[in-house]
Structures are given as structure tokens and as C-alpha cells.
């Protein structure tokens, strides 16, 4: 009898073990899981909201340094905060600002687009220092000349005007061009590089007797460096001697001005004419900050005679790594100085 009772108990326990959960148990499980999940999710969401509020507060505070209005700041924040980067970079990096402008233009709200030129000016992105490469067609100067190719036709052209949506290019000769045509524009930016870009003609009209086409802005610029190393504009007094070879140096010493410098050479100008020709060698002395350059060997690569001066392109023939580093450091410091002045509106 006891054995039968034990067996019945075992059967009942097995039935209980393998039966499905009751509605009440399922409800309890859902409540427990929900409470657990919310205990993690709510603090996380709160932290994200708090972080975004603090970032927005810093953003708006930073905008006041540039005299942006509340409306201008709100516009900038709305689009910058959608980018997968720190929105504060829009105040420091022009390329980030241009991405914001692209989004504003894509949205197509005329009132927002009208605000961009004012914001651009206040952030001091309306000009670009000569040593910074172009990142968008918005950076191209008005009156920049170049060559426009339309199909099989080619013509000289120049940038006639630009706004936040379009760059307007005037054609110097009559070539057939229509809305929808694919065109290429090639140009050289002095002391920088050769650039080109492709676009589709959005509008065609006549202005002052010339055909003008409107192209939508793009950041797809092709760039080919003009020189192997960057040249920096300077005005440095220099003394030099020259001759057909190092063994046949003219004993007379001349004084000139170095007008630009790189680790590869200098542009040297003399106030008057001088019997120096392509291929001649020079021994050059000058001072760059606190570094003295003595008997630097150079070779004349070209000569240009102007009304009041003669200039030479001089390539360094035997310069040490220490001397290269002194020039590199000088250029780097000058870049930083000019960038600070640029952001402070002093250029």
C-alpha cells in the first residue's frame, strides 16, 4: 500500500515537472524580465539624453564666440548633430562644415539655404588660406580661369559666380552646351595643384554676352600636386655667389631676397639684371629664424627677368637632413601661425 502511494506521488511529481507553465507563471516571468530590462535601458537612455543635452549646451555656448544667432545655431546643430562625428568639429574643420552645407542644400529649404552664407562668414570659412587644398567646388575663387570640356568641344572658361547650391562658369567662346550635358572643368590653383571635376549642367543662360552654365557643387575634386614639396612664401635676405661650376665661382658676392622656400629649393630674386643663367651653380647664405645656412649649394633651374628684378628657381644640390628639418619646422610653425590668424579673422 505504501509502495503504491509512493509510486502515485512519483507519477504526480513527473506530471508537474513536464507540464507547461501556467498563465500566472508566464506573467510573473514577463514582469521580472521587464523590470530587469528597464533597470538597464532607462539609465542608459537617460545617460544618452543627458550627454546630448550637455553637448548641445556646449555647442550653443561655443556658437556665441562666433556671434551666431539662436536661429543660426539651431540650424547648424540640427544638421551637424546628425553626422557620425562630434558636432563641435563644425567650428574647427571646414570640411565638416561643408558636409553640413551639403545636407542643408539636399533638404532644399530656401530659408535655410539663405542663412548659410552668413554662417559661413561668421565662422570665417568664406576664404581659404592659399596653402590649404580645396575640398569642394565652393572653395574655388571667383574669376578662377580654366578649361571646360563639353563632349568633343573645348573652351577657355572662368568661374563667374557661386552660391551655396551652384558654381557658375562663363564660357569664353561659343560651344554647344545644353541642360543635362556632362562637362569637365580643369584649372590650376597657383602654388597648390592642378584640379578638375565633372558635373552635369543644371542651367544655361546668357550674361553680358557670354554663355554661363550652372553646375551643382561637388566634393569630388581630382588633385595633382604641382610640386614635390610645399613652397612657403617668405622675404628673407640672402647672399650668394655663382659660377658655371663649383670650381669656377665668381668672387663677387651679391645680395638678394628669397621669396619662397621648400626643402627642395628657393625662389631667389635680385634687384636688377645679373649674368646668371640656367644650369649655373650657387653658394647661398641665409638665416631662417635662428638657423644659419652657410654655403648651401644650389643650381639654377630657370631665370625670369622682370622690369625691376630678376628671379631664379634654385634647386638645392647638397642639403643635410638637419637643414631639411630646420626648413620643415619653419614651414610647420608658419602654417600654424597663419591658421590661428585665419580662425581669428586676422588674415
Termini separation: 107 Å
Question: How much is the radius of gyration in Å?
Answer: 34 Å
How many individual helices? Answer: 6
Query: Got a strand count?
Result: 13
Percent strand? 25-35%
Q: What is the strand arrangement across the widest sheet?
A: 1-2-3-6-5-4
Element-by-element helix/strand order: HHHHHEEEEEEEEEEEEEH
User: What is the overall pLDDT average?
Assistant: 86
Poorly predicted regions: none
Tell me roughly what share of residues is in helical segments.
Answer: 25-40%
The domain count comes to 3
Which structural class matches the secondary elements? Answer: alpha+beta
Main sheet properties: 6 strands, antiparallel, barrel
Features of this protein?
six-stranded antiparallel barrel, six-stranded antiparallel beta barrel, Thrombin, subunit H, alpha+beta, 347 residues, 3 domains, 6 helices
Structure overview:
It is a single chain. The chain folds into three domains: 1-127, no CATH class; 137-225, predicted glycosyltransferase like domains (Thrombin, subunit H, Beta Barrel); 232-341, Beta Barrel (Thrombin, subunit H). It is of the alpha+beta class and 347 residues long. The strands form two sheets. The protein has a six-stranded antiparallel β-barrel. The chain has a six-stranded antiparallel beta barrel with strand order 8-9-10-13-12-11. Strand 12 (291-305) and strand 13 form a beta hairpin. 35% of the residues lie in helices and 32% in strands. The mean pLDDT is 86. The chain is extended, with a radius of gyration of 34 Å. Helix 2 (23-64) crosses helix 3 and helix 4 (94-107) runs antiparallel to helix 5.
